[in-house]
Amino acid sequence: MGDLILGIETSCDETAAAVVERASTVRSSVVNSQVDLHARFGGVVPEVASRAHVELMVPVVAEALLAAGLEGPEVDAVAATTGPGLVGSLLVGVTAAKSLALVWDVPFVSVNHLEAHLYAAFLEEPDLELPLVVLLVSGGHTMLVLMEGHGKYRLLGSTLDDAAGEAFDKVARYLGLDYPGGPAIDALAMEGDASAFKYPRALVQENPATLPDDRRFAFSFSGLKTAVVNHVRNEPDVAAADVAASFQEAVVDALVTKARWAVEATGAKGLCLGGGVAANSRLRERFLDVCMETGVRAFLPSRAMCTDNAAMVAAAGWWRLQSDGPSPLDTGANPNWALPLLP
Ligand code: KG4
Ligand code: ZN
After folding, report:
1. Does 108 share its domain with 196?
2. Closest of 19, 101, 83, 91 to residue 57, by C-alpha
3. In the chain, N or C terminus with fewer CB closer than 10 Å?
4. Eight-class DSSP state of 134
């Protein structure tokens, strides 16, 4: 089976294409972010996103092929994110990938976006040992996954309400910061005092055993967001940098505490971070502390690999092709597709 995969990613507001060899060597990775296009609306506007994907799809794929030194028909398969994500955006990438697969007469591979995030780490560290606990934190998802083998995942816990990135974006908007809010809070927090305010850490206790089984590795950020908003409303002159730093500390506390519990409970060999929020400076710092304390091997993908890109889609696609073979050409976009879990 072929080793050179063209990956395509259009699940949200990044139009991306990449060429990856054997899920480990990135030959090219092009990411065209539409962030400036959506900034004036304070969030991703689905219709604007899909129109931009249509315009950018061909040039982005052409650039990825060119940068990899290819003309196109030499790729062995075409993989695309088919879900979860915005349906109009997904359809652009899925249609492009299936058309190319058909024209080049190579397999098409449907890739789950969350599985792709799990594979981002393997691109930079192909020797990662399993089982591995992955803390996946993005704008749409916050979950702790135990990766037992390739394609074999157990969900340890996920958020009961807002995703961590969503909480960052909402609090940032309330503080009048630029979109996207995560990087804005990250930057502002550097000038603030993280211990200025003690905001709530939901579902975090001294002893994990005191939490019910289905809540032990779960997260909740909506109460924290409300606490911050109420605080600022009652105290409008409070230093925004202190609020940002204290809020960020509360989110990071919950994330790293549960990641540590997960490693302790599963005996995993490694702990790995993924998703857009994994770019957060404080989370990266505290994550390394946890790995030092537990003696487990840490893996922190580069910021470029944490945020949406097509190299991770190509890597996950290669593994899926080995295990399941090509996907049928009538595979459509699946906006609510969950991470495929072990029974
Ligand atoms: O994975 P991603 O690129 O897109 C998906 O949601 O799939 O993640 C985007 C999220 C946004 O909520 C953004 O605010 C957040 O990641 N983010 C950050 C940082 N950089 C991006 N959050 C906190 N600190 C950052 N430095
Ligand atoms: Zn993502």
Report:
1. no
2. 91
3. C
4. E
Residues 102 and 222 reside in one and the same domain: no
Q: What is the DSSP string of 237-290?
A: TS-HHHHHHHHHHHHHHHHHHHHHHHHHHHT-SEEEEESGGGG-HHHHHHHHHH
Q: Quick one: 208 and 253 in the same domain?
A: yes
Does 185 lie in the same domain as 89? no
C-alpha neighbours within 13 Å on the C-beta side of residue 266: 28
**pTM over cut 0.90:** yes
The protein residue with its alpha carbon nearest to ligand 1, atom 18, reads 182
Q: What is the DSSP string of 166-178?
A: HHHHHHHHHTTPP
For ligand 1, atom 2, the nearest C-alpha belongs to: 276
Residue of 57, 122, 61 whose CA lies nearest to 318? 122
**Distance (Å, whole) CA 315 – CA 19:** 9
- Whether 171 and 54 share a structural domain: no
Instruction: Return phi, psi of residue 220, to 5°.
Output: -150, 125
Closest ligand 1 atom, CA of 248? Answer: 23
Residue ranges, the chain, pLDDT below 50 = none
Domain count along the chain: 2
Residue 85 lies inside a defined structural domain of this protein: yes
Distance 100 CA to ligand 1 centre (A): 30
139 in Cβ contact with 276 (< 8 Å) = yes
- For 296-342, the pLDDT digits (tens) are 998 999 988 999 999 999 999 999 999 999 999 999 999 999 999 99
- CA triplet 23, 26, 30: central angle to 5 degrees? 120
Residues of the domain holding 101: 4-119+306-324
